[in-house]
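Same chain as my last thread, 336 residues:
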Amino acid sequence: MTPPQTALAVSFALLSCLPAAAGDFTPAGVYGQDDRRELSQVQSGKVKSWADSTVALFKAGQVTADAEKKTSALKLEPFNQMPMRTPENPFGEMVDLCQGEPYKGQQTGAFCSGSLVAEDMVMTAGHCIQTQESCEGVRFVFGFAAGKDGQPAGEVPSDEVYSCAKLVTQKLEGNGADYAVVKLDRAVKNHKPLRIRRSGAPPAGTPLTVIGHPVGLPTKVAGGASIRKDDQGGYFAGNLDTYGGNSGSAVINTVTGEVEGILVRGGPDFEYDAEKKCAKTVRKMDDTGRGEDVTLVSNVIASIPDPNKPKAMIASDSPKPAMRALAQASSGLGGF
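reply #2:
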């Protein structure tokens, strides 16, 4: 066995690998063909624009700003191991990934995913950010994607890094609601908010695309999925190709481009290959396995401003003279 990786790797990997149970907050596994793609492999301008609104959640201690260079260094490490329960150690140990596993050796660092849904608001899973205190310990990083060499850059412009100003709303209910909306420390530049469904709910069969950071890896785009079971009481289930770390990812209607929900939980990511003594991705047919649970966006629309509605007029205790005169004329208290 190679030595254990850092505590960050262990924390998200433990969530990803152990068997699913009630309340297991682990989007996981691959259904049918693995549809995940690097952002550089995506040809559609529409899908690229969705990915541009995706954000990686890093612990504050993993991001170090350089005021002089105006850049922020990201603490990353190679994705080579996962903790697994094995016959030799039923309580879990670090196990090497099997040869040929997707993204083996790619640098990783984020712990959850999110999406921009207003000029200064990010939507994610409730189990990713549970309190105002934990929210303040998160950095929201845009543009965490692999380059031509297949690896993400070790630093990003500091203006692509945002902090939490306020945890606007959050809920975490076992196998039910799981969501959080965060107000950032400033409006986001150079990234457009995603459109969200404002009414109704998507039916079974709706085609889906999920964009996020599986096991903290650089941006992955996965289409080719659909809704298996529609509204299950605030969430639906789909055959989305994800790993733990995709928690909080926007799940988008591939046809309309609207966000239908937030990826929150599913089955286990990895299983132990007893013959090769390594960890391999759990793979299911498109119509088998438990599926991945997606919190319906209807749970959070009340907390996200509608860009199609005009901002409410601000009341004033002392109306402007012209407005006061008009009001007086209308009421018979004055005239022109």
